[in-house]
Amino acid sequence: MDTKSYPVSGAGLGLRRDFMDELAQRDDQPFDFLEVAPENWMEIGGALGKKFAHFTERYPMMCHGLSLSLGSPAPLDEHFIIRVKKFLDKHNVKAYSEHLSYCGDEGHLYDLMPIPFTSEAVSYVAQRIKRVQEIIERPLIIENVSYYAAPGQEMPEVDFVNAILDEADCGLLLDVNNIYVNSINHKYDPETYMKAIPTERIKYLHIAGHYNEADDLKVDTHGSDVIDPVWSLLEKTYQQHGVIPTLLERDFNIPSLATLTSEVDKIRHYQSAQGQDRLAHTA
Questions:
Q1: E strands, the chain, in order
Q2: Does residue 246 contact residue 275 with C-beta atoms inside 8 Å?
Q3: Which alpha helices (DSSP H) does 91-151 contain, by range?
Q4: What are the residue boundaries of the structural domains of the chain, listed by start?
Q5: Phi, psi (5° rounding) for residue 173?
Q6: How many Cα atoms are found within 13 Å in the side-chain-facing hemisphere of 136?
Q7: Tell me, what's the pLDDT at 143?
Q8: Selection from 177, 174, 175, 268 nearest residue 227 by Cα
Q9: In angstroms, rounded to a whole number, what is the distance separating the alpha carbons of residues 25 and 47?
Q10: What is the separation, in whole angstroms, between the first and last Cα of the chain?
Q11: Which helix (H) or strand (E) holds 259?
Q12: CATH code for 3-282?
């Protein structure tokens, strides 16, 4: 795959206020890019706004939204989308991604609810994605989400995702941990899912930790270290699709910046190993 189609490169981290001051004081740049939820920063000014601008000037910045609600029965909040566009433009954000889910109707549910895997939903969501892209004047990248129920399901999850990618002609943020979590909760093979995704649609990856509620129930929390089976699935994703920019998500139980840097360095290790392996096979 042509790496020019990626909005960023290397290994990144979700920016959290917990470690902003410490990261700002470092002379080096331990991460290749950063990511934030625009909802958390669009209205922030003053000293904290200046701190945020410091990072947008030093790092390639990605935005991963929380409240676009692509599958909602309510109309798109176009006023909100216009505000997002202004934020993306102001901070030279490299790309904007959102969850393939919905989070409300007339009110906000503060959770990511599953969209029914149906052909009707494919058309509905694809049209909404196209409208978002018209307003923001750039591609929208959608993310495969974790889900714990599949109401009204008519097709496999991966077929649903691929159908939307095709009809909306948009990119994909492939969340490797979500593949793993869903594969346990819904009893499918994670590698088969990963290999069914068209390489050319993948724009970057997420990797994260999760909570073990039970042997057959995993909860996507972003609140713990990435486990070995998820690292293994990331490695196999690189083998299948090439070395893709990858971001570590850590939203709760946030450890030291040194620990986070170590996990991001582990992403780089897998990226480097796969890159060297490909060079060896082409030599």
A1: 11-14, 33-36, 61-64, 95-99, 102-104, 108-113, 140-143, 171-175, 202-208, 211-214, 217-219, 246-249
A2: no
A3: 119-136
A4: 3-282
A5: -95, 105
A6: 29
A7: 97
A8: 177
A9: 15
A10: 18
A11: helix 257-282
A12: 3.20.20.150
pLDDT at 283: 43
**Residue 216, pLDDT score:** 84
C-alpha torsion 43→21→33→31, nearest 10: -170
Q: How far apart are CA 116 and CA 155, in angstroms?
A: 9
Question: How far apart, in Å, are the Cα atoms of 174 and each of 27, 53, 55, 82?
Answer: 31, 27, 25, 26
- List, in sequence order, every residue forming a beta bridge with 104; answer none if it has no partner: 108
**Matching residue, tokens 């979700």:** 14
Q: 62: which strand partners?
A: 35, 95
Instruction: For residues 194 and 77, give the distance between their C-alpha atoms in angstroms, rounded to a whole number.
Output: 32
The mean of the pLDDT values for the chain is 92
Decide: 3 and 32 in contact? Cβ < 8 Å: no
Condensed to tens digits (0 to 9), the pLDDT of residues 253-264 reads 999 999 999 999
Which residue do the tokens 């409300």 mark?
104
**Can you tell me the distance from the alpha carbon of 211 to that of 221, in angstroms, rounded to the nearest whole number?**
6
Residue type at position 124: Y
